[in-house]
Write a structure and sequence with these properties.
Chains A, B: It holds the Pfam family MarR_2. The structure is a homodimer. Chain A is elongated. Chain A contains 6 helices and 3 strands; from the N terminus they run H-H-E-H-H-E-E-H-H. The two termini of chain A are 28 Å apart. In chain A, 56% of the residues lie in helices and 8% in strands. A 3-stranded antiparallel beta sheet of chain A has the order 1-3-2. At the A-B interface, helix 1, helix 2, helix 3, helix 5 and helix 6 of A face helix 1, helix 2, helix 3, helix 5 and helix 6 of B. Chain A binds a DNA duplex through helix 4.
DNA sequence: TATTGTTATACTCTATAACTATA
DNA sequence: TATAGTTATAGAGTATAACAATA
């Protein structure tokens, strides 16, 4: 690949993201989980017990997608479903002991990955970069048009 | 969506990218092309004529994917295929007059979008951000393991 | 009637395998 | 034999529609 496109912001964002995702995947490989699955564990490790729909909203995914995510984690014995006694339509999803261990180790690996990824930067650059990125990620970025509320394409 | 994940680098990169892509798509809407298609036009507007495979390499996509990309652009009369006289296996893909116009206008809209996206930043922040992003996007980010040459997942 | 989880289905994106025509 | 373009096909990933259980 040459670099006709490498000065384009979209290209840079996409490839920075791909690079980081690849690093994360590599780091989590020995744990046997994906970055996606780690993110789900993070969300499910909340103070209050979450239903599948609660977790789906937190992750920004469809509830049908959430079914598959929980299926995966349950197959690995990282989480378990139980019917909510308060509302028997709901599945409360909680981490198993194994899941809590995987979460802790995954978070450790994840932090290492972030650190390694930003290692080339000075602490000041690093801080500034994250601050800017937060702005750009939060920004709904709808400039000129007045669309009322189009649903965002959200992923963890 | 709440923000349990919003301090994670992966999340920030992904959502900054999604936001920018959405802005770009909105900006190009009146032109009737996608950001992807604009990137293909940029590549095909090279000094030397490119075959489909040349362009695919430049874009970092598979040659089968390239077929579809050229099909789309040809359907919109933005590019045209012609057999290479030197090697009749090759399709040289060139921009039509209409394609050149679309490219110019698309690039104008694209630059506006980049500018708007970075508008909240000071010029110094902007410059620093792009410089850092370039580093992170270029970085193959293979830290601890010595894999010889795994093919990257490339997209424009 | 509305909501939660589920399944079936479809759609997008992209890659692999196989075919053709050329070299 | 190898390469360029093409087609058919399959695999992720995710969404929509419909259904059962529950509210």
């Amino acid at each position: 690949m040459a670099d006709l496109l490498t000065s384009r912001l979209g290209y840079l964002l996409k490839h920075a993201q791909l690079n980081f995702a690849a690093s994360g995947a590599r780091a989590l490989e020995p744990l046997g989980i994906t970055g996606r699955q780690l993110a789900v564990l993070v969300v499910l490790d909340a103070a209050e017990p979450l239903s599948q729909l609660d977790a789906a909203r937190e992750l920004g995914v469809d509830r049908t997608t959430m079914v598959a995510l929980v299926d995966e984690l349950e197959a690995k014995d990282l989480v378990e479903r139980r019917r909510s006694p308060d509302d028997r339509r709901k599945n409360i999803v909680g981490l198993t002991a194994h899941g809590k261990k995987a979460l802790a180790e995954g978070e450790r690996l994840h932090k290492e990955t972030e650190k390694a990824f930003l290692a080339e930067l000075t602490p000041i650059e690093s801080e500034l970069f994250l601050r800017i990125l937060k702005k750009l990620a939060a920004d709904t970025a709808r400039e000129a048009d007045g669309e009322p509320d189009q649903d965002e394409n959200e992923n963890a």
